[in-house]
């Protein structure tokens, strides 16, 4: 059984198919049809809802998420807020300004856009009304009527209207709940199942997780579900058994241990964005382009590593930094270099009963620099064609050490070992970089697919290395990201 609050009303669910998405439950079971389905893959944002998760102080942290790829079991102990929460007059300020600024055209995408802006309004961040914050909030909302100018104007006007959590008459008052109402639901593990059908377990402790993994090694692990849920919505699969890891305290959050930043496997991109970017600033631009804000609010570092995609955005920069992966299981913890975790296309070194516990990222040392460049067809909410991540240790103008890692160039995220050999011990100059670029042909034989041809990938990989050289020159702007459009 799971318990949560929907638009201020307590809900209890039992004997529900755990493959059910929040979107499908809202529309077919609750007849709350304001939330729309546009893509069923987390790309268009028409299904955006707000999830409130209580923190240790008792306050709820509200985030916009894609309900089409969020499963119903993930709601336990949380708030679910839909557009219907604001249907009483006078409505939310975002709704009012959307009308005044003519921000709605056909209207299909409008509920999701409103919810994204309401979540930004509720965040309380000091720059919420800035264009940068508004565009980030809307990065996962597709308006096919191309009405972005009035939508941004509506957001800017609405987000300057402050409100107090103590004002129970404000339309946003439904965003405030006492943690006490849900406290009992947070104390034990929960689950959903159908008689002789699919099963969903959500253990609360590391020991419970170990036992479940030991008993059911074939069960699928799920955290944010932004990738796994696509098997249900796009491939129409039924997942027979899922084990959620998002309620395990040891798997969430970031901490510093010695000279390493330790990131729990169930930590979302949004949660580790600032801790890792403060230490390695190149991550800031890359994480701002990883999926959309809705995806970053749910997707996790462990999920991005565990699905072993050759075009996952996190592995290449973590490999470039020499990150260590911590695995846990029936025989206890073991550690291995992240690059050794990937054995082949979608194949990993994860043993039966094991799970990813955390990733340990070395701190920056004197002389070290990190460059991360993502190339994709569009700026926001897109998958990489090529992602290059380069860690260089420079002594004056000499490259004394380097780690060059790429995604999209092989069956796994991988280092360019021949290019590293060509560069190490050489001056950081155009001639040395040209030799390293030539060596890339020995490192990779990329494939052609819908995102890029093999020739394009090989050429752009070299160009990214050359870009790092140019960015090192004080005469050039050291921009953290590169955007490339191609046919």
UniProtKB/TrEMBL annotation:
What the entry lists under CDD domains is as follows: fer2
* A UniProt-annotated Pfam family: FAD_binding_5
The protein's Enzyme Commission number: 1.17.1.4
Give all residue intervals belonging to the 2Fe-2S ferredoxin-type domain.
Answer: 1-86
List UniProt keywords, sorted A-Z: FAD, Flavoprotein, Iron, Metal-binding, Oxidoreductase, Ubiquinone
Offer an example of a GO molecular function term for this protein: iron ion binding
Question: Which InterPro entries does its entry note?
Answer: 2Fe-2S-bd (IPR002888), 2Fe-2S-bd_dom_sf (IPR036884), 2Fe-2S_ferredoxin-like_sf (IPR036010), 2Fe-2S_ferredoxin-type (IPR001041), 2Fe2S_fd_BS (IPR006058), Ald_Oxase/xanthine_DH-like (IPR016208), Beta-grasp_dom_sf (IPR012675), CO_DH_flav_C (IPR005107)
Give start and end of each FAD-binding PCMH-type domain: 193-366
Q: Which PROSITE patterns match?
A: 2FE2S_FER_1 (PS00197), 2FE2S_FER_2 (PS51085), FAD_PCMH (PS51387)
Protein name as catalogued: Xanthine dehydrogenase small subunit
């Amino acid at each position: 059984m799971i318990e949560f609050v929907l638009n201020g009303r307590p809900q209890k669910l039992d004997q529900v198919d755990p493959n059910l998405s929040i979107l499908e439950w809202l529309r077919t079971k609750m007849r709350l049809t304001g939330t729309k389905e546009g893509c069923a893959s987390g790309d268009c944002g028409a299904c955006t809802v707000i999830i409130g998760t209580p923190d240790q102080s008792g306050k709820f942290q509200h985030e916009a998420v894609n309900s089409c790829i969020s499963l119903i079991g993930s709601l336990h102990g949380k708030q679910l807020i839909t557009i219907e929460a604001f249907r009483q007059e006078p409505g939310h300020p975002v709704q009012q300004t959307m009308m005044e600024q003519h921000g709605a055209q056909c209207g299909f995408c409008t509920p999701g856009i409103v919810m994204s802006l309401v979540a930004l309004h509720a965040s309380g961040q000091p720059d919420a009304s800035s264009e940068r914050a508004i565009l980030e909030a809307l990065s996962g909302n597709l308006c096919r009527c191309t009405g972005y100018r009035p939508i941004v104007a509506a957001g800017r006007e609405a987000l300057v209207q402050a409100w107090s959590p103590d004002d129970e008459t404000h339309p946003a008052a439904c965003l405030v709940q006492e943690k006490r109402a849900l406290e009992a639901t947070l104390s034990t593990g929960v689950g959903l199942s159908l008689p002789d059908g699919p099963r969903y377990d959500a253990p609360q402790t590391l020991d419970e997780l170990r036992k479940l993994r030991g008993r059911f090694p074939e069960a699928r692990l799920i955290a944010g579900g932004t990738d796994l849920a696509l098997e249900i919505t796009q491939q129409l699969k039924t997942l027979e058994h899922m084990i959620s890891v998002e309620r395990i305290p040891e798997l969430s959050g970031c901490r510093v241990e010695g000279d390493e930043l330790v990131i729990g496997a169930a930590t979302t991109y949004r949660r580790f964005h600032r801790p890792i970017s403060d230490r390695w600033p190149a991550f800031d631009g890359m994480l701002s382009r990883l999926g959309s804000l809705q995806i970053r609010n749910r997707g996790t570092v462990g999920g991005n590593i565990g699905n072993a995609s050759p075009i996952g955005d996190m592995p290449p920069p973590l490999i470039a930094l020499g990150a260590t992966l911590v695995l846990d299981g029936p025989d206890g913890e073991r550690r291995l270099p992240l690059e050794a975790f990937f054995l082949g296309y979608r194949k990993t070194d994860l043993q039966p009963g094991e799970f990813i516990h955390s990733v340990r990222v070395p701190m920056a040392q004197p002389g070290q620099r990190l460059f991360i460049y993502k190339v994709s067809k569009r700026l926001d909410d897109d998958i990489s064609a090529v992602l290059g991540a380069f860690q260089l240790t420079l002594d004056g103008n000499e490259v004394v050490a380097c780690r060059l890692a790429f995604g999209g160039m092989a069956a796994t995220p991988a280092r360019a070992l021949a290019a590293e050999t060509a560069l190490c011990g050489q001056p950081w100059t155009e001639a040395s970089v040209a030799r390293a670029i030539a060596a890339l042909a020995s490192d990779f034989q990329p494939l052609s697919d819908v995102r890029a041809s093999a020739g394009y990938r090989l050429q752009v990989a070299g160009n990214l290395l050359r870009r790092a050289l140019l960015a090192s020159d004080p005469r050039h702007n050291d921009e953290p990201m590169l955007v490339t459009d191609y046919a």
